[in-house]
Amino acid sequence: MVPAAIGLAFLVLPLAGLLVRAPWGTLAARLTAPRTLEALRLSLVTSTAATAACLLAGVPLAWMLARVAFRGRRVVRALVTVPLVLPPVVGGVALLLALGPGGLAGPWLSTLGVTLPSTSAAVVIAEAFVAMPFLVICVEGSLRTTDTRIEEAAAILGASRWTVFRRVTLPLVAPGVAAGAVLCWARALGEFGATVTFAGNFPGRTQTMPLAVYLALESDPEAAVALSLVLLLVCVAVLACLRGRWVNVA
User: Fold this and answer.
1) 43 and which of 99, 113, 179, 208 could share a cystine (Cβ 3.0–4.6 Å)?
2) Rounded to whole angstroms, how far apart are CA atoms 145 and 129?
3) C-alpha to C-alpha distance for 203 and 35, rounded to whole angstroms
């Protein structure tokens, strides 16, 4: 119990520090400032868009890793999990070298008239890059523990592969998809390193809440605490609601 209490205190004490040091008297004024509201809006929009993109690409990727036997599957799984351990700044540099004007896909994007760095789209891409592994791992784990005989029975009864996937597989792994989406969204909401490296820090265009916190910390620490408190409350509220309703892990 003593080591457990120490571990719990280690995790809770920094959060308590935010609550104790928060400028409650001026909190409302700081949070309703135009720049703060703009950063919060951009964070919510981009993290939601990144989660939607991760769902579209991550669920099929998790299904492939869980159900399709092919050579190099372990290598693919390792590549999928690389962003989990890759320093976010390095991820931003990699995105810049791949999708920037001088990157691998830069000439092709230029012919289409697309410039990604310093845009809101770059924020979405950076957030999706670092957050997708959380979704893939959760969904793949759910697929591996699902009884495949139910899917086989549906196929024997004449259902197509797409019908089996849509009407049988997805409902069976819905809790895992929900858990992965929540983790993906929370990770995207708090992304900093890849965003500032690939998208930059431009108010109203790429400045999300984490970037606003970092900027405020240098000039107005109390504002940084207030912004941090907003991120903390949003993440705790969303995780608490979805854990009780969709994620059956209690």
Assistant:
1) 208
2) 26
3) 7
CA–CA dist 205, 42 (Å, integer)? 8
Global pTM reads 0.85
Homologous superfamily of the 2-245 domain (CATH): MetI-like (1.10.3720.10)
Instruction: Give phi and psi for 112, each to the nearest 5.
Output: -90, 0
Average the pLDDT over 180-191 and give the result.
Answer: 89
Q: What one-letter code names the amino acid at 111? A: T
Tokens 């409902």 appear where?
171
Summarize the confidence of residues 44-49 as an average pLDDT.
Answer: 93
Type of residue numbered 88:
P
CA distance 162 to 118: 39
Closest CA to 247 of 175, 187, 143, 173: 175
Where along the chain do its domains lie? 2-245
Report the distance separating Cα 132 and Cα 146, nearest Å.
21
Window from 82-91, 93-102, 180-189, 216-225 with minimum mean pLDDT: 216-225
